[in-house]
Design brief:
16-stranded antiparallel barrel, single chain, elongated, 507 residues, Porin_dom_sf, 12% helix
Length: 507
Protein backbone atom coordinates (compact mmCIF):
# COMPACT_ATOMS: atom_id res chain seq x y z
CA UNK A 1 0.00 0.00 0.00
CA UNK A 2 2.80 2.43 0.98
CA UNK A 3 4.72 1.44 -2.16
CA UNK A 4 1.69 2.12 -4.34
CA UNK A 5 1.21 5.59 -2.83
CA UNK A 6 4.89 6.44 -3.41
CA UNK A 7 4.73 5.45 -7.07
CA UNK A 8 1.56 7.49 -7.60
CA UNK A 9 3.17 10.55 -5.95
CA UNK A 10 6.30 10.26 -8.09
CA UNK A 11 4.28 10.02 -11.26
CA UNK A 12 2.26 13.07 -10.28
CA UNK A 13 5.40 15.13 -9.48
CA UNK A 14 7.22 14.33 -12.77
CA UNK A 15 5.46 17.00 -14.93
CA UNK A 16 6.11 19.63 -12.28
CA UNK A 17 9.83 18.80 -12.19
CA UNK A 18 9.99 18.87 -15.98
CA UNK A 19 8.34 22.30 -16.05
CA UNK A 20 10.79 23.60 -13.42
CA UNK A 21 13.76 22.25 -15.39
CA UNK A 22 12.43 23.79 -18.59
CA UNK A 23 12.04 27.19 -16.91
CA UNK A 24 15.66 27.06 -15.69
CA UNK A 25 16.95 26.21 -19.20
CA UNK A 26 15.04 29.09 -20.76
CA UNK A 27 16.46 31.54 -18.21
CA UNK A 28 20.01 30.37 -19.01
CA UNK A 29 19.42 30.78 -22.75
CA UNK A 30 17.96 34.26 -22.23
CA UNK A 31 21.00 35.29 -20.19
CA UNK A 32 23.31 33.95 -22.98
CA UNK A 33 21.37 35.84 -25.63
CA UNK A 34 21.60 39.05 -23.60
CA UNK A 35 25.38 38.61 -23.30
CA UNK A 36 25.69 37.96 -27.05
CA UNK A 37 23.58 41.05 -27.84
CA UNK A 38 25.85 43.16 -25.62
CA UNK A 39 28.93 41.83 -27.43
CA UNK A 40 27.42 42.54 -30.86
CA UNK A 41 26.46 46.07 -29.86
CA UNK A 42 30.03 46.68 -28.69
CA UNK A 43 31.47 45.32 -31.95
CA UNK A 44 29.10 47.48 -34.02
CA UNK A 45 30.07 50.56 -32.01
CA UNK A 46 33.76 49.83 -32.60
CA UNK A 47 33.16 49.32 -36.32
CA UNK A 48 31.15 52.54 -36.60
CA UNK A 49 33.98 54.42 -34.92
CA UNK A 50 36.48 52.93 -37.39
CA UNK A 51 34.27 53.92 -40.35
CA UNK A 52 33.99 57.49 -39.08
CA UNK A 53 37.78 57.63 -38.70
CA UNK A 54 38.34 56.44 -42.29
CA UNK A 55 35.68 58.82 -43.67
CA UNK A 56 37.34 61.73 -41.90
CA UNK A 57 40.62 60.89 -43.67
CA UNK A 58 39.02 60.47 -47.11
CA UNK A 59 37.36 63.74 -48.14
CA UNK A 60 34.92 64.36 -49.66
CA UNK A 61 32.76 61.80 -47.89
CA UNK A 62 30.37 59.99 -50.27
CA UNK A 63 26.70 60.14 -49.35
CA UNK A 64 25.34 57.06 -47.55
CA UNK A 65 22.18 55.58 -49.00
CA UNK A 66 19.40 55.60 -46.43
CA UNK A 67 18.71 52.23 -44.91
CA UNK A 68 22.04 50.66 -45.80
CA UNK A 69 23.98 49.03 -43.03
CA UNK A 70 27.48 50.51 -42.60
CA UNK A 71 30.28 48.31 -43.88
CA UNK A 72 33.93 48.27 -43.02
CA UNK A 73 36.20 50.27 -45.36
CA UNK A 74 38.13 48.08 -47.76
CA UNK A 75 41.91 48.41 -48.18
CA UNK A 76 43.21 50.16 -51.30
CA UNK A 77 44.29 47.80 -54.06
CA UNK A 78 47.99 46.97 -54.10
CA UNK A 79 50.08 48.30 -56.98
CA UNK A 80 50.79 45.78 -59.68
CA UNK A 81 53.99 43.85 -59.16
CA UNK A 82 55.31 44.55 -62.66
CA UNK A 83 53.95 47.73 -64.25
CA UNK A 84 54.07 48.08 -68.00
CA UNK A 85 57.13 50.09 -69.10
CA UNK A 86 56.55 53.77 -69.71
CA UNK A 87 54.71 54.45 -72.91
CA UNK A 88 55.74 57.78 -73.42
CA UNK A 89 58.33 59.87 -73.68
CA UNK A 90 61.23 61.10 -72.51
CA UNK A 91 60.29 64.49 -72.58
CA UNK A 92 57.38 63.98 -70.48
CA UNK A 93 57.52 60.54 -69.19
CA UNK A 94 54.23 59.25 -70.30
CA UNK A 95 54.38 56.66 -67.64
CA UNK A 96 52.98 53.17 -67.43
CA UNK A 97 49.35 52.50 -68.26
CA UNK A 98 49.08 49.10 -66.63
CA UNK A 99 45.30 49.17 -66.55
CA UNK A 100 43.38 46.64 -64.50
CA UNK A 101 40.19 45.03 -65.73
CA UNK A 102 37.06 46.61 -64.23
CA UNK A 103 36.12 43.50 -62.26
CA UNK A 104 39.54 43.50 -60.59
CA UNK A 105 39.50 47.13 -59.45
CA UNK A 106 38.05 48.90 -56.45
CA UNK A 107 37.26 52.60 -56.27
CA UNK A 108 40.21 54.42 -54.73
CA UNK A 109 42.28 57.56 -55.05
CA UNK A 110 45.41 59.23 -53.79
CA UNK A 111 47.74 56.23 -53.76
CA UNK A 112 51.25 56.43 -55.24
CA UNK A 113 52.13 53.58 -57.60
CA UNK A 114 55.56 53.24 -59.17
CA UNK A 115 55.45 53.68 -62.95
CA UNK A 116 52.12 55.54 -62.81
CA UNK A 117 52.43 58.30 -60.25
CA UNK A 118 49.63 59.30 -57.90
CA UNK A 119 46.34 57.59 -58.78
CA UNK A 120 43.73 60.33 -58.60
CA UNK A 121 40.76 58.08 -59.36
CA UNK A 122 40.11 54.44 -60.12
CA UNK A 123 36.74 52.85 -60.78
CA UNK A 124 35.18 50.24 -63.04
CA UNK A 125 34.82 52.91 -65.76
CA UNK A 126 38.09 54.81 -65.66
CA UNK A 127 41.46 55.46 -64.13
CA UNK A 128 43.52 58.66 -64.08
CA UNK A 129 46.94 59.21 -62.55
CA UNK A 130 49.16 62.27 -62.14
CA UNK A 131 52.93 62.25 -62.49
CA UNK A 132 55.66 64.86 -62.87
CA UNK A 133 59.27 65.35 -63.91
CA UNK A 134 61.42 68.31 -62.93
CA UNK A 135 64.89 69.28 -61.86
CA UNK A 136 66.91 72.19 -60.53
CA UNK A 137 70.26 72.74 -62.27
CA UNK A 138 73.36 74.72 -61.44
CA UNK A 139 75.37 75.25 -64.64
CA UNK A 140 78.91 76.62 -64.92
CA UNK A 141 80.33 77.15 -68.44
CA UNK A 142 83.03 79.66 -67.48
CA UNK A 143 85.87 77.23 -68.24
CA UNK A 144 84.88 77.11 -71.94
CA UNK A 145 86.64 79.15 -74.61
CA UNK A 146 84.59 82.28 -75.23
CA UNK A 147 85.00 82.21 -79.04
CA UNK A 148 84.64 79.54 -81.70
CA UNK A 149 85.77 79.35 -85.34
CA UNK A 150 83.77 77.14 -87.69
CA UNK A 151 85.01 75.14 -90.68
CA UNK A 152 84.58 78.14 -92.99
CA UNK A 153 86.75 80.50 -90.92
CA UNK A 154 83.91 82.43 -89.29
CA UNK A 155 84.62 83.35 -85.65
CA UNK A 156 81.70 83.61 -83.23
CA UNK A 157 81.44 84.80 -79.63
CA UNK A 158 79.94 82.39 -77.10
CA UNK A 159 77.65 83.68 -74.35
CA UNK A 160 78.87 81.62 -71.39
CA UNK A 161 76.56 80.94 -68.46
CA UNK A 162 76.94 80.58 -64.70
CA UNK A 163 73.47 80.31 -63.17
CA UNK A 164 70.82 78.27 -61.37
CA UNK A 165 67.62 77.32 -63.21
CA UNK A 166 64.43 75.48 -62.35
CA UNK A 167 65.18 73.86 -65.67
CA UNK A 168 62.23 71.76 -66.80
CA UNK A 169 58.74 70.92 -65.59
CA UNK A 170 56.54 68.21 -67.06
CA UNK A 171 53.04 67.51 -65.69
CA UNK A 172 51.36 64.31 -66.91
CA UNK A 173 47.78 63.08 -66.67
CA UNK A 174 47.37 59.54 -67.96
CA UNK A 175 44.96 56.66 -67.68
CA UNK A 176 42.10 54.87 -69.43
CA UNK A 177 38.40 55.48 -70.04
CA UNK A 178 35.54 52.93 -70.30
CA UNK A 179 37.89 50.25 -71.64
CA UNK A 180 41.28 49.58 -69.98
CA UNK A 181 42.76 49.21 -73.47
CA UNK A 182 41.68 52.72 -74.53
CA UNK A 183 44.33 54.97 -73.04
CA UNK A 184 45.14 58.66 -72.93
CA UNK A 185 48.05 60.89 -72.02
CA UNK A 186 47.87 64.67 -71.65
CA UNK A 187 50.86 66.72 -70.57
CA UNK A 188 52.34 70.17 -70.25
CA UNK A 189 56.05 70.43 -70.85
CA UNK A 190 58.17 73.52 -70.30
CA UNK A 191 61.83 74.50 -70.41
CA UNK A 192 62.46 77.61 -68.36
CA UNK A 193 65.83 78.26 -70.01
CA UNK A 194 63.99 78.69 -73.33
CA UNK A 195 61.71 81.52 -72.21
CA UNK A 196 60.50 83.46 -75.23
CA UNK A 197 61.11 80.65 -77.71
CA UNK A 198 58.23 79.35 -79.80
CA UNK A 199 58.12 75.96 -78.05
CA UNK A 200 59.00 77.06 -74.53
CA UNK A 201 55.69 75.59 -73.33
CA UNK A 202 54.11 72.55 -74.97
CA UNK A 203 50.61 71.28 -74.20
CA UNK A 204 50.22 67.94 -75.93
CA UNK A 205 49.53 64.24 -75.57
CA UNK A 206 48.22 61.20 -77.40
CA UNK A 207 45.41 58.66 -77.54
CA UNK A 208 46.13 54.96 -77.95
CA UNK A 209 44.47 51.56 -78.08
CA UNK A 210 46.05 48.30 -76.94
CA UNK A 211 44.76 45.55 -79.24
CA UNK A 212 47.05 42.84 -77.91
CA UNK A 213 50.67 42.39 -76.82
CA UNK A 214 51.78 42.39 -80.45
CA UNK A 215 50.02 45.56 -81.55
CA UNK A 216 49.11 48.91 -80.00
CA UNK A 217 48.26 52.01 -82.02
CA UNK A 218 48.57 55.68 -81.01
CA UNK A 219 48.11 59.14 -82.48
CA UNK A 220 49.29 62.51 -81.23
CA UNK A 221 52.72 63.96 -80.46
CA UNK A 222 55.43 61.37 -79.91
CA UNK A 223 59.14 60.68 -80.22
CA UNK A 224 60.62 59.33 -83.43
CA UNK A 225 62.43 56.12 -82.31
CA UNK A 226 65.59 57.18 -84.16
CA UNK A 227 68.07 56.21 -81.40
CA UNK A 228 67.97 54.53 -77.98
CA UNK A 229 67.31 57.81 -76.19
CA UNK A 230 64.27 58.66 -78.32
CA UNK A 231 62.83 55.15 -77.98
CA UNK A 232 61.05 56.00 -74.71
CA UNK A 233 63.97 55.33 -72.35
CA UNK A 234 63.71 58.73 -70.63
CA UNK A 235 64.25 59.59 -67.79
CA UNK A 236 66.31 56.48 -67.04
CA UNK A 237 69.53 58.07 -68.29
CA UNK A 238 72.87 58.49 -66.57
CA UNK A 239 73.21 62.22 -67.38
CA UNK A 240 69.74 63.22 -66.07
CA UNK A 241 68.30 64.78 -69.26
CA UNK A 242 71.26 65.57 -71.52
CA UNK A 243 72.48 63.18 -74.18
CA UNK A 244 76.00 62.67 -75.41
CA UNK A 245 77.00 65.21 -78.05
CA UNK A 246 76.94 62.65 -80.90
CA UNK A 247 73.52 61.31 -79.93
CA UNK A 248 72.16 64.86 -79.82
CA UNK A 249 73.70 65.56 -83.24
CA UNK A 250 72.34 62.52 -85.10
CA UNK A 251 68.91 61.86 -83.53
CA UNK A 252 65.42 62.78 -84.63
CA UNK A 253 63.01 64.54 -82.28
CA UNK A 254 59.27 64.81 -81.53
CA UNK A 255 56.49 65.33 -84.01
CA UNK A 256 52.79 64.77 -84.60
CA UNK A 257 51.92 61.47 -86.19
CA UNK A 258 50.73 57.93 -85.70
CA UNK A 259 52.76 55.03 -84.37
CA UNK A 260 52.50 51.36 -83.52
CA UNK A 261 54.44 49.17 -81.12
CA UNK A 262 54.35 45.73 -79.60
CA UNK A 263 56.12 42.46 -78.83
CA UNK A 264 56.91 39.99 -81.59
CA UNK A 265 58.03 37.41 -79.01
CA UNK A 266 59.05 37.31 -75.36
CA UNK A 267 62.42 38.83 -76.28
CA UNK A 268 61.73 40.94 -79.41
CA UNK A 269 59.88 44.26 -79.65
CA UNK A 270 59.31 46.98 -82.23
CA UNK A 271 58.08 50.54 -82.69
CA UNK A 272 57.30 52.36 -85.97
CA UNK A 273 56.09 55.92 -86.53
CA UNK A 274 54.89 58.03 -89.45
CA UNK A 275 55.06 61.76 -88.74
CA UNK A 276 55.13 65.30 -90.09
CA UNK A 277 58.85 66.11 -89.83
CA UNK A 278 61.94 65.55 -87.67
CA UNK A 279 60.88 68.09 -85.04
CA UNK A 280 57.49 69.80 -84.95
CA UNK A 281 57.72 71.53 -81.58
CA UNK A 282 57.57 75.24 -82.32
CA UNK A 283 56.34 74.75 -85.91
CA UNK A 284 52.81 75.72 -86.96
CA UNK A 285 50.86 73.72 -89.54
CA UNK A 286 51.26 76.35 -92.27
CA UNK A 287 55.04 75.88 -92.19
CA UNK A 288 54.86 72.13 -92.89
CA UNK A 289 55.07 70.73 -96.39
CA UNK A 290 52.24 68.53 -97.65
CA UNK A 291 54.20 65.29 -97.97
CA UNK A 292 53.72 63.57 -94.56
CA UNK A 293 56.74 61.38 -95.31
CA UNK A 294 58.81 61.21 -92.11
CA UNK A 295 59.30 57.60 -91.03
CA UNK A 296 61.18 56.12 -88.10
CA UNK A 297 61.37 52.56 -86.83
CA UNK A 298 63.14 50.54 -84.14
CA UNK A 299 63.56 46.82 -83.54
CA UNK A 300 65.13 45.43 -80.36
CA UNK A 301 66.10 42.04 -78.99
CA UNK A 302 66.76 41.11 -75.35
CA UNK A 303 68.04 37.54 -75.69
CA UNK A 304 69.19 36.61 -72.18
CA UNK A 305 66.50 37.80 -69.75
CA UNK A 306 63.75 39.22 -71.97
CA UNK A 307 63.99 42.61 -70.23
CA UNK A 308 66.51 45.41 -69.73
CA UNK A 309 65.26 47.28 -66.69
CA UNK A 310 62.61 50.03 -66.53
CA UNK A 311 61.96 51.47 -70.01
CA UNK A 312 65.14 49.70 -71.21
CA UNK A 313 67.13 52.63 -69.84
CA UNK A 314 70.78 53.13 -68.93
CA UNK A 315 72.52 51.97 -65.74
CA UNK A 316 71.81 48.97 -63.50
CA UNK A 317 70.09 50.47 -60.48
CA UNK A 318 68.16 47.19 -60.16
CA UNK A 319 71.35 45.10 -59.61
CA UNK A 320 70.56 42.36 -62.15
CA UNK A 321 71.39 38.91 -60.79
CA UNK A 322 71.47 37.48 -64.32
CA UNK A 323 73.21 39.09 -67.29
CA UNK A 324 70.70 41.27 -69.16
CA UNK A 325 71.46 42.13 -72.78
CA UNK A 326 69.91 44.40 -75.40
CA UNK A 327 70.52 44.81 -79.13
CA UNK A 328 68.61 47.33 -81.24
CA UNK A 329 68.45 48.72 -84.77
CA UNK A 330 66.94 52.07 -85.81
CA UNK A 331 66.25 53.77 -89.12
CA UNK A 332 64.77 57.21 -89.86
CA UNK A 333 64.03 59.06 -93.09
CA UNK A 334 62.57 62.53 -93.60
CA UNK A 335 62.28 65.07 -96.40
CA UNK A 336 63.05 68.37 -94.62
CA UNK A 337 62.13 71.91 -95.59
CA UNK A 338 63.93 75.10 -94.52
CA UNK A 339 60.65 76.66 -93.41
CA UNK A 340 59.67 73.79 -91.12
CA UNK A 341 62.64 74.04 -88.73
CA UNK A 342 62.34 74.74 -84.98
CA UNK A 343 63.97 77.76 -83.36
CA UNK A 344 67.67 77.61 -82.55
CA UNK A 345 67.05 77.33 -78.79
CA UNK A 346 63.75 75.46 -78.75
CA UNK A 347 64.34 72.94 -75.99
CA UNK A 348 63.99 69.85 -78.18
CA UNK A 349 65.64 71.42 -81.22
CA UNK A 350 66.76 68.82 -83.75
CA UNK A 351 67.87 70.71 -86.84
CA UNK A 352 70.26 69.18 -89.35
CA UNK A 353 73.81 70.47 -88.84
CA UNK A 354 77.23 70.09 -90.41
CA UNK A 355 79.80 68.47 -88.13
CA UNK A 356 81.18 71.94 -87.23
CA UNK A 357 77.75 72.93 -85.89
CA UNK A 358 76.58 74.96 -88.90
CA UNK A 359 72.86 74.65 -89.66
CA UNK A 360 72.37 73.56 -93.26
CA UNK A 361 69.19 75.64 -93.61
CA UNK A 362 70.65 78.87 -92.21
CA UNK A 363 71.32 81.80 -94.51
CA UNK A 364 74.48 81.20 -96.60
CA UNK A 365 75.72 78.20 -94.55
CA UNK A 366 78.95 77.73 -96.58
CA UNK A 367 79.91 81.35 -97.11
CA UNK A 368 79.40 80.99 -100.87
CA UNK A 369 75.97 82.57 -101.23
CA UNK A 370 74.27 79.19 -101.72
CA UNK A 371 70.98 78.67 -99.89
CA UNK A 372 69.52 75.19 -99.24
CA UNK A 373 65.71 74.99 -99.31
CA UNK A 374 65.10 71.24 -99.09
CA UNK A 375 67.10 68.11 -98.24
CA UNK A 376 66.51 64.45 -97.43
CA UNK A 377 67.76 63.09 -94.10
CA UNK A 378 68.45 59.37 -93.59
CA UNK A 379 69.96 57.96 -90.41
CA UNK A 380 70.65 54.44 -89.14
CA UNK A 381 71.78 53.40 -85.68
CA UNK A 382 72.82 50.11 -84.06
CA UNK A 383 73.13 49.72 -80.30
CA UNK A 384 74.12 47.06 -77.78
CA UNK A 385 74.02 46.99 -74.00
CA UNK A 386 74.63 44.74 -71.01
CA UNK A 387 73.78 44.92 -67.30
CA UNK A 388 74.91 42.75 -64.40
CA UNK A 389 75.22 43.17 -60.64
CA UNK A 390 75.10 46.97 -60.71
CA UNK A 391 77.38 47.39 -63.73
CA UNK A 392 76.24 48.54 -67.17
CA UNK A 393 77.87 49.11 -70.55
CA UNK A 394 76.10 50.58 -73.59
CA UNK A 395 77.31 51.51 -77.05
CA UNK A 396 75.65 52.92 -80.15
CA UNK A 397 76.92 53.69 -83.66
CA UNK A 398 75.32 56.17 -86.08
CA UNK A 399 75.37 56.67 -89.85
CA UNK A 400 73.74 59.73 -91.43
CA UNK A 401 73.24 60.69 -95.07
CA UNK A 402 71.86 64.07 -96.22
CA UNK A 403 71.25 64.41 -99.96
CA UNK A 404 68.71 65.27 -102.66
CA UNK A 405 69.34 68.96 -102.02
CA UNK A 406 67.26 71.73 -103.51
CA UNK A 407 69.59 74.76 -103.51
CA UNK A 408 70.25 77.90 -105.53
CA UNK A 409 73.97 77.26 -106.05
CA UNK A 410 76.86 74.75 -105.82
CA UNK A 411 77.39 72.63 -102.70
CA UNK A 412 80.74 71.65 -101.10
CA UNK A 413 79.90 67.90 -101.06
CA UNK A 414 81.12 65.04 -103.20
CA UNK A 415 78.27 63.77 -105.40
CA UNK A 416 75.98 66.30 -103.68
CA UNK A 417 75.76 64.04 -100.63
CA UNK A 418 76.87 64.72 -97.07
CA UNK A 419 77.86 61.71 -94.95
CA UNK A 420 78.72 61.66 -91.24
CA UNK A 421 79.10 58.83 -88.75
CA UNK A 422 79.97 58.47 -85.09
CA UNK A 423 79.41 56.61 -81.84
CA UNK A 424 78.68 56.89 -78.15
CA UNK A 425 79.79 54.74 -75.18
CA UNK A 426 78.36 54.80 -71.65
CA UNK A 427 79.41 52.77 -68.63
CA UNK A 428 78.27 52.84 -65.01
CA UNK A 429 78.63 51.06 -61.67
CA UNK A 430 76.51 51.10 -58.52
CA UNK A 431 79.27 51.89 -56.01
CA UNK A 432 76.75 51.56 -53.18
CA UNK A 433 73.68 49.49 -54.17
CA UNK A 434 70.50 51.59 -54.51
CA UNK A 435 72.41 54.66 -53.29
CA UNK A 436 75.49 55.80 -55.26
CA UNK A 437 76.21 55.36 -58.96
CA UNK A 438 79.35 56.42 -60.85
CA UNK A 439 79.44 56.74 -64.63
CA UNK A 440 81.54 57.76 -67.60
CA UNK A 441 80.14 58.51 -71.05
CA UNK A 442 81.46 59.96 -74.25
CA UNK A 443 80.99 60.26 -77.99
CA UNK A 444 82.70 61.25 -81.23
CA UNK A 445 81.59 62.37 -84.69
CA UNK A 446 83.50 61.69 -87.90
CA UNK A 447 82.25 64.37 -90.27
CA UNK A 448 83.18 66.19 -93.45
CA UNK A 449 83.58 69.50 -91.59
CA UNK A 450 85.13 68.41 -88.30
CA UNK A 451 85.52 65.55 -85.82
CA UNK A 452 84.19 66.82 -82.47
CA UNK A 453 83.99 64.70 -79.31
CA UNK A 454 82.92 64.84 -75.67
CA UNK A 455 83.40 62.89 -72.42
CA UNK A 456 81.54 63.14 -69.09
CA UNK A 457 82.33 61.92 -65.57
CA UNK A 458 79.53 61.93 -63.03
CA UNK A 459 77.90 60.64 -59.87
CA UNK A 460 74.24 59.96 -59.11
CA UNK A 461 73.18 59.85 -55.45
CA UNK A 462 69.77 58.35 -54.62
CA UNK A 463 69.12 59.56 -51.03
CA UNK A 464 65.90 57.57 -50.61
CA UNK A 465 67.28 54.46 -52.32
CA UNK A 466 64.67 54.91 -55.04
CA UNK A 467 64.89 56.14 -58.62
CA UNK A 468 62.37 58.94 -58.12
CA UNK A 469 64.79 61.39 -56.46
CA UNK A 470 68.48 61.87 -57.21
CA UNK A 471 71.33 64.35 -56.99
CA UNK A 472 73.66 64.43 -60.00
CA UNK A 473 77.09 66.07 -60.20
CA UNK A 474 78.93 66.02 -63.52
CA UNK A 475 82.02 67.30 -65.26
CA UNK A 476 81.72 67.44 -69.06
CA UNK A 477 84.62 68.07 -71.46
CA UNK A 478 83.89 69.01 -75.09
CA UNK A 479 86.04 69.54 -78.15
CA UNK A 480 84.39 71.67 -80.88
CA UNK A 481 80.84 70.62 -79.99
CA UNK A 482 78.71 70.15 -83.11
CA UNK A 483 75.46 70.98 -81.32
CA UNK A 484 74.16 72.82 -78.27
CA UNK A 485 71.59 75.30 -77.01
CA UNK A 486 70.08 76.98 -73.98
CA UNK A 487 68.28 73.81 -72.89
CA UNK A 488 71.55 71.85 -72.93
CA UNK A 489 74.60 72.24 -70.69
CA UNK A 490 76.82 73.03 -73.71
CA UNK A 491 76.88 75.38 -76.70
CA UNK A 492 77.67 74.91 -80.38
CA UNK A 493 81.46 75.18 -80.68
CA UNK A 494 82.15 74.47 -77.00
CA UNK A 495 85.79 73.78 -76.12
CA UNK A 496 86.66 72.96 -72.51
CA UNK A 497 84.94 71.97 -69.29
CA UNK A 498 81.32 72.40 -68.23
CA UNK A 499 80.13 71.58 -64.69
CA UNK A 500 76.57 70.79 -63.65
CA UNK A 501 74.74 69.90 -60.43
CA UNK A 502 71.15 68.67 -60.74
CA UNK A 503 68.45 67.73 -58.24
CA UNK A 504 65.91 65.65 -60.16
CA UNK A 505 62.43 64.51 -59.14
CA UNK A 506 60.50 62.05 -61.28
CA UNK A 507 57.37 60.17 -60.23
Amino acid sequence: MHLTRAIVAAIAATPLLAIAATDASIEERLRALEQRQTQLEQQLAERDARIRELEAKAQPVPAVVAGEAPVAAQPLPKPDAAPVPAIAVEEPTLGALDAKAPEETESSWGRYEGGKGIVLARSEDAEVAFSAFTYIRYLNQLALDDTYTDAFGRTKDLDLRNDVQFQKVTLNFKGWLFDPDFRFLFYTWTSNTSQGQSAQVVVAGNLSYHFNDAFSLAGGIGALPSTRTTNYTFPNWLRVDNRTMADEFFRGSYTSGIWAWGKLSDTVGYRAMLGNNLSQLGIDASELDANFNTFSGALWWMPTTGEFGPAQGFGDFEQHEDLATLFSAHFTRSREDAQAQPGLDDFENSQIRLSDGTLIFQEDPFGTGTQIRKATYRMAALSAGAKYDGFSLDGEYYWRWVDDFRANGPLPFDNDEMFDHGFQLQGSAMVVPKTLQAYVSGSKIYGEFGEPWDVALGLNWFPMQRRELRLNVQGLYLEDSATGGSSLPYLVGSNGWVFTTDVMLNF
